[in-house]
Write a structure and sequence with these properties.
- The structure holds two protein chains of two kinds.
- Chain A has a domain at 96-307: MetI-like (MetI-like fold, Orthogonal Bundle), CATH 1.10.3720.10.
- By secondary structure, chain A is an all-alpha fold.
- Chain A contains 14 helices and no strands.
- Chain A is flat.
- In chain A, 67% of the residues lie in helices and 0% in strands.
- A two-stranded antiparallel ribbon of chain B has the order 1-2.
- In chain B, α4 (84-113) runs parallel beside α8, α4 (84-113) packs antiparallel against α11 (218-247) and α11 runs antiparallel to α14 (281-309).
- In chain B, β1 (58-59) and β2 form a beta hairpin.
- Chain B folds into two domains: 2-55, no CATH class; 74-309, MetI-like fold (Orthogonal Bundle), CATH 1.10.3720.10.
- Classes of the chains: A mainly alpha, B mainly alpha.
- Chains A and B meet through α1, α4, α5, α6 and α9 of A and α2, α4, α5, α6 and α7 of B.
């Protein structure tokens, strides 16, 4: 089905009646141009000012993670370390098993991302392409799960996993992503699939493809931006999650980086020196992978949200 | 194969008995693909939800079996729990301040970043970056930055001549504003703003052309074209923002453990403490259900209001 493009001007440039521009003399035009220039400068100034304000805490993380605690506690603040204390980063890995914790976080991410991609896509595909009995009801039920606070189901879920002797394993932290993932992600994927023309499905049916074949060979390749978005959202959710791992994991060697960093904040060490610089180094270490992943997938991420046509 | 699909287009003729083969196929595949989600929905959501509803009428400390005590948990929370009303009020305060600031802030930021200026993606990335910082990491950062004596912010304020800068996380009056500040830093340029950008890019350009021909300046076209057409996005972000803000407690827990002097003891933290520190599972379940009712009611009220306030272009 050919749809009429929305953004195209219905009047071709050449056919525009000449009279439209007659009343704009040169002065008017110049005034308009200079006003636009001023507007542009104002935009840049505003964006740069706010940008610096937003970037500053990140810059400060980097800088303070390389200072000594004496520098951090001196009465005249040091914006930059006198000599970068790379040893802080070394100490984070030796005082606490930070490498282990990072690896644990990565493990959970690596289990959950394929799970969500697979099962959230299947769910979204069912909602977007099949007119099964009761579809409307299930869809509303799915969306309404977004309203219910996590804590309502968290308590009985904990009791369930407690009775199944699965506390202190990664099962409670990973099972959800293999059972559809979050409602928001399913919704996003469903919106995206709806934008893919059905003609493509029908062409594949004529070629003898079944529903799974269509999903795998026709729809999923076109969903790359949306799937990348989902993968990033899942990665962020797992990497940043504190609530789940904090309750479910008891053994220190099983901690994730988020729980580990918080433990590092409060755990007793041999020395009672302030450890702000070490905590900052830890914060930087656990933030770097997120920034790297985002940098690699950034162009898909924005277009994934935009193209899913979040028409609400 | 081809024949079966031809029937799909005729499908709307639904009969009470005798489902057509095409419809049967739709049902079969629909439910087949829905299966993983259905298992999760019943196993991790409906089942536990019902169990927690049952628990809310019991006294349960995990070690011994639940004892049915009828409505006692619900009456206790209103009458005997000293932390109940204050924690609810604190949560409301946090949501009422942080949600409007973050929704309006990210909308303005999105309008600013929606231009086609050179280098705009660099700026978008810059504003998005704070939202990527894990919450535990940003707590560590803000606690150092806002430390009452050695924090850079207070040193700066003293340098500017303020004698007694706020104690931030250490001061019961400033603890919630500190959390709001942290949240704004982490959310203004984040997904909310991306959703606003998506909304802005969905506004047909001919509306701006028409406004320009009518002689509207940029403020007027923002006021009369952009904002009305963004109301669905504003609505969406507000609803999700309220749901999120009411449930915040991780930042409060990691930064201040609900203190100082219960200043950041939010309602969700209260439930959490009852459940996992004091093992009052039954009472915690009752609190959680009360909380769920409040959140659902607030969401429904917002949806009702949206009918009057939200403008859908082209309807």
């Amino acid at each position: 089905m050919a749809t009429t493009p929305i953004n195209q001007n219905p009047i071709a440039p050449g056919t525009l009646p000449q009279t439209t521009f007659v009343n704009h003399d040169d002065d008017e035009l110049r005034r308009r141009q200079s006003r636009r220039l001023v507007g542009r400068i104002v935009s840049y100034v505003l964006m740069t000012l706010f940008g610096l304000l937003f970037a500053f805490p990140l810059i400060w993380t980097a800088s303070s993670s390389l200072q000594t605690w004496q520098e951090l506690r001196s009465y005249i603040p040091h914006l930059l370390p006198a000599t970068p204390q790379w040893i802080n980063y070394y100490q984070v890995f030796t005082l606490v098993p930070f490498a282990r914790w990072m690896l644990n976080s990565a493990t959970i991410v690596l289990i959950n991302v394929p799970g969500t991609i697979l099962t959230a896509t299947l769910t979204a595909y069912a909602f977007a392409r099949f007119n099964f009995f009761g579809k409307g009801v299930w869809f509303v039920l799915m969306l309404s799960t977004m309203m219910i606070p996590a804590i309502v189901t968290f308590i009985p879920q904990y009791l369930l996993f407690f009775n199944l002797k699965m506390v202190d394993t990664y099962v409670p932290l990973t099972i959800g992503s293999w059972l559809g993932g979050s409602a928001f992600m399913i919704f996003l994927l469903r919106q995206f699939i709806m934008t893919i023309p059905r003609d493509l499905d029908e062409a594949a049916i004529i070629d003898g493809a079944g529903p799974l074949r269509i999903l795998w060979s026709v729809i999923m390749p076109l969903m790359k931006p949306a799937l990348t978005t989902i993968a990033i959202l899942q990665f962020l959710a797992d990497w940043n999650d504190f609530f789940g791992p904090f309750i479910y994991l008891n053994t220190m060697s099983k901690y994730t980086a988020a729980v580990g960093l918080r433990t590092f904040q409060v755990m007793p060490l041999e020395t009672t020196d302030p450890r702000d610089q070490l905590l900052m180094a830890g914060a930087a270490i656990m933030t770097i992978p997120v920034l790297l992943v985002f940098a690699a997938a950034q162009r898909y991420f924005v277009s994934g949200v935009v193209m899913s046509g979040l028409k609400l | 194969m081809a024949k079966a699909t031809n029937n799909v287009s005729l499908a709307p003729a639904r009969r009470r008995r005798g489902v057509s083969p095409a419809q049967r196929r739709q049902n079969l595949y629909g439910y087949l693909f829905l299966t993983p989600w259905l298992i999760g929905f019943f196993g991790l959501f409906i089942g536990p939800g019902l169990y927690s509803f049952y628990l809310s009428f019991t006294k349960y400390d995990v070690l011994s079996a639940p004892v049915f005590i009828s409505l006692k948990n619900y009456t206790d929370m209103f009458t005997k729990d000293d932390l109940f009303w204050p924690s609810l009020a604190r949560t409301a305060y946090f949501a009422l301040v942080s949600v409007p600031l973050s929704v309006i802030g990210s909308m303005l930021l999105a309008i600013l970043l929606n231009s086609k200026l050179r280098g705009i993606t660099v700026y978008r990335t810059l504003f998005f970056m704070p939202s990527l910082v894990p919450i535990v990491a940003s707590v560590v950062l803000f606690k150092v930055l806002l430390d009452s004596s050695f924090g850079l912010v207070n040193q700066g304020l003293r340098g500017l001549g303020m004698e007694n800068p706020p104690g931030w996380f250490a001061d019961s009056k400033w603890a919630i504003p500190s959390l709001i500040l942290m949240r704004l830093w982490g959310s203004l340029g984040g997904t909310q703003m991306i959703i606003f950008l998506a909304g802005l890019q969905g506004i047909p350009t001919e509306l701006y052309d028409a406004a320009a021909i009518d002689g509207a300046n940029s403020w007027q076209s923002t006021r009369h074209v952009t904002i009305p057409l963004l109301t669905p996005t504003i609505f969406f972000n507000t609803v999700l923002g309220v749901i999120g803000a009411l449930q915040t407690f991780v930042a409060a827990f990691v930064a201040t453990q609900g203190g100082p002097a219960f200043a950041t003891w939010f309602f969700a933290l209260h439930i959490w403490k009852q459940a996992f520190d004091y093992f009052n599972m039954g009472y915690a379940a009752a609190l959680a259900w009360f909380f769920a009712v409040i959140i659902v009611a607030l969401t429904l009220v917002q949806m009702r209001l949206s009918r009057r306030l939200v403008f859908y272009y082209g309807e």
